[in-house]
């Protein structure tokens, strides 16, 4: 995929990356350099997200700011890792923390942004987990 993107960049085309799927275009015309088989792997399944959520809870429980937790769904082949961002903060009287989760399935790669807060029992409850939009 890097070779494709590098070649696209050198030919003066634009590259758009959203949710792990790259498209090449010139103006408003999509050139079809990426096949539909790459597109089908870009969205995490509910089962993939469940594995990512468990990894997020595990890494946040460890409390280390410089650690990551890998995850893998053997049924779909999807995998990734979860990394806490910055420090904990308070929201609605609860301790919360943001994290990034990578998602890799086949040739598709994307990032998810999440937030978790401690519940009344001290366990991390994942409040949000959605596609990360880079600014």
Report the sheet with the most strands, covering strand number, pairing sense and barrel closure.
5 strands, antiparallel
Count of helices? Answer: 3
The end-to-end distance, rounded to whole angstroms, is 22 Å
Helix content: 10-25%
Category by helix and strand content: alpha+beta
Measured by DSSP, the beta-strand proportion falls in over 45%
Structural Rg: 17 Å
The tally of beta strands, per DSSP, is 8
Q: How many structural domains are formed by the residues?
A: 2
Shape: globular
Strand order of the largest sheet: 4-5-6-7-8
What low-confidence regions span 5 or more consecutive residues with pLDDT below 50?
A: 1-40
Can you give the mean pLDDT? 75
Helix/strand order: HEEEHHEEEEE
Description:
The protein is an alpha+beta fold and 135 residues long. It has three helices and eight strands; from the N terminus they run αβββααβββββ. The protein has two domains: 39 residues, no CATH class; 86 residues. The chain is 23% helix and 45% strand.
Sum this structure up briefly:
It is built from three helices and eight strands.
Topology (SSEs and partners):
Layout: H1 2-10, E1 14-18, E2 21-26, E3 29-30, H2 36-40, H3 46-62, E4 69-72, E5 79-91, E6 94-105, E7 108-118, E8 124-131
Antiparallel strand pairs: 1-2, 2-3, 4-5, 5-6, 6-7, 7-8
Core attributes:
2 domains, three-stranded antiparallel β-sheet, single chain, 8 strands, alpha+beta, 135 residues
């Amino acid at each position: 995929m890097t070779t494709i993107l590098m070649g696209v960049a050198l030919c003066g085309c634009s590259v758009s990356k959203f949710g792990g799927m790259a498209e090449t275009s010139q103006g408003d015309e999509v050139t079809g350099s990426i096949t539909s088989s790459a597109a089908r792997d870009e969205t995490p399944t509910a089962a993939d997200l469940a594995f990512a959520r468990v990894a997020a809870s595990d890494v946040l429980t460890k409390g280390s700011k410089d650690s990551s937790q890998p995850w893998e769904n053997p049924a779909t082949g999807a995998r990734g890792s979860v990394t806490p961002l910055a420090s904990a903060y308070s929201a609605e009287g609860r301790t919360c923390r943001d994290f990034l989760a990578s998602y890799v399935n086949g040739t598709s790669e994307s990032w998810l942004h999440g937030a978790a807060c401690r519940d009344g029992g001290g366990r991390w409850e994942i409040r949000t987990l959605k596609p990360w939009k880079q600014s």
